Amino acid sequence: MEISVSGAAVTGAKTGTLVIGAFADGSLTSAADAVDRAAGGTLSAALARGDLDGKAGATLLFPSLAGVGADRVLLVSLGARTALGDRSFRDAVSGAGRALAAGPVADAAVALVEVDVPNRGLAWRVQTSARLLADAAYKFDAPRANPPAPRGARKLSLLVGGANSELDEAVRTGLAVAEGMALTKDLGNLGGNVCNPAYMADTAVAMGKELGFEVEILERADMEALGMQSALSVGRASYSPCKFIVMKYSKGGASKPIVLVGKGMTFDTGGVSLKPGANLDEMKYDMCGGGTVLGLFRTVARLGLPINLVGLVMAVENMPGGNASRPGDVVRSMAGITIEILNTDAEGRLVLCDALTYAERFEPACVIDIATLTGACVIALGAHASGLFANDEALAAELLAAGHATGDRAWQMPLWDDYQGQLKSNFADMSNLGGPPAGAVTAALFLSHFTRKYKWAHLDIAGTSSVSGDAKGATGRPVPLLSEFLLSRAAAAAS
After folding, report:
1. 3-class DSSP string for 206-243
2. Which letter does DSSP use for residue 150 in this model?
């Protein structure tokens, strides 16, 4: 999508659709008021009749209005004026984005960034709008016998008082984040027969060549030499060999790197501890942590951020078979810690622990792992917030703030030693399962054993990385949260 800022007058904008805003009480934004006066009060009359739902994001389309240069006018609700904030602004822009993506016009002008959101500047509103509008236009290129004709606006202008370099950069940033989200969504939405470990590795290699960062793929023999028995135990029954993807982006001088670790379980049957059949197709989304890391590298490289970043993705497929791990097996991790496998469906922690140990060699500023780790986190937080665990409160606070700024929120969960007893094993140093109580907490505690040499945070995205139902698909989360975190780190380093 092409998005730019423009200082064009709202009534004179020559475009397919002009987007303007109104509040639930019937009052209009400045741009909408100008349009209403030019159109002889048409908008005010429609609002007085109750034609526009007051909920933020609701839309009302006018096919044409006298005195207005646009072919169509889309009126978008901003919700209650007294409750205007980050969420209602994002809902309004997203509602406009969905309408534009479904409409017949190829270009549009959006006059919503003029709205004064409390505690948010114009650059934030422009960047947020660019990301949300581009994300709303995302369409998965599904293989079909008769592909539908392309539809929706592909060229947008954000109407502001006038363009400047700060606003141009805000647009560029918003588009780069949306581009990273799109890659994460594409990888998640592909079937496991396509997006297997080799596909993820090939995607990383191609992106590294395109955008100029280093990529190394460690094969099974390399992982065996490193002592990654834990990770290899998960994928050993699969026809598709494990791949350990190592990406290095180096534009931060002598600064210590931030390391991102992603769970890339390209399909999770549960192994011998086979999952129930219902909704098993959605286990293709179990690689969304790894997909997030790839998406973030696209965003960071596209923007050329002045940071050092390492991405580690353990790409594995968990299948049953004659060579599969069994409950009761004991494996040794790269760190030397032995693990009793009580359930082969608690596999994510088995692959992450070796990647987290590998991260030590980079002497990182911090390590963040991203994983669709536990159904227990979905029970605890639903689909609205990712679970956040951290061994450093300052790092946790940074991530929480980034989530608040983007609407891609996380909620901090306990990482207390009180729960450690649930991981006790009679046959190894620890087990891979802590039982039903506090399942998301004990999974994070398992990982914490491998992160004691650096600052670390864990994002459990099992509830936020994809949605079910009619809108089934990957969401691209938490790319916005982590992009904001990395942007803030880059800005701090440059200051």
Report:
1. HHHHHHCCEEEEECHHHHHHHCCHHHHHHHCCCCCCCE
2. P
Instruction: Say if CB 54 and CB 76 are below 8 A apart.
Output: no
Backbone angles phi, psi at 178, to 5 degrees: -65, -35
Q: Cβ(140)–Cβ(185) under 8 Å?
A: yes
Question: What separation, in Å, do the N-terminal and C-terminal C-alpha atoms of the chain show?
Answer: 31
Question: In the numeric block, which tokens belong to residue 434?
Answer: 């802590």
The pLDDT tens digits for 295-314 are 999 999 999 999 999 999 99
Share of the chain above pLDDT 70, in %: 100
Which position among 185, 349, 455, 489 bears the catalytic label? 349
The DSSP output letter for 308 is: E
Q: Any idea which residue has 């947008």 for tokens? A: 156
Q: What is the mean pLDDT of residues 207-215?
A: 98
Of the chain, the percentage scoring pLDDT greater than 90 comes to: 96
Residue 316, Cβ density class (10 Å: 0-12 exposed, 13-18 middle, ≥19 buried): buried
What pLDDT was estimated at residue 162? 67
Query: Which residue in the list 220, 275, 302, 453 is annotated as catalytic?
Result: 275
Give catalytic status of residue 284 as yes or no.
Answer: no
Active site residue 302: no
Which residue matches tokens 């992009």? Answer: 483
The CA dihedral of 203, 187, 311, 241, to the nearest 10 degrees, is -70
Cβ burial, residue 473 (10 Å; 0-12/13-18/19+):
middle
> Which is nearest to 68 in space by CA: 106, 115, 11?
11
148, 195 Cβ separation under 8 angstroms: no
pLDDT band at 163 (very low <50, low <70, confident <90, very high): low
Rounded distance between C-alpha atoms, residue 97 and residue 93, angstroms: 6
pLDDT at 17 over 70: yes
Torsion over CA: 358, 360, 361, 362 (sign): positive
For residue 71, give Cα distances in angstroms to 48, 367, 369. 23, 51, 48
Alpha-carbon distance of 340 to 328, in angstroms, equals 6
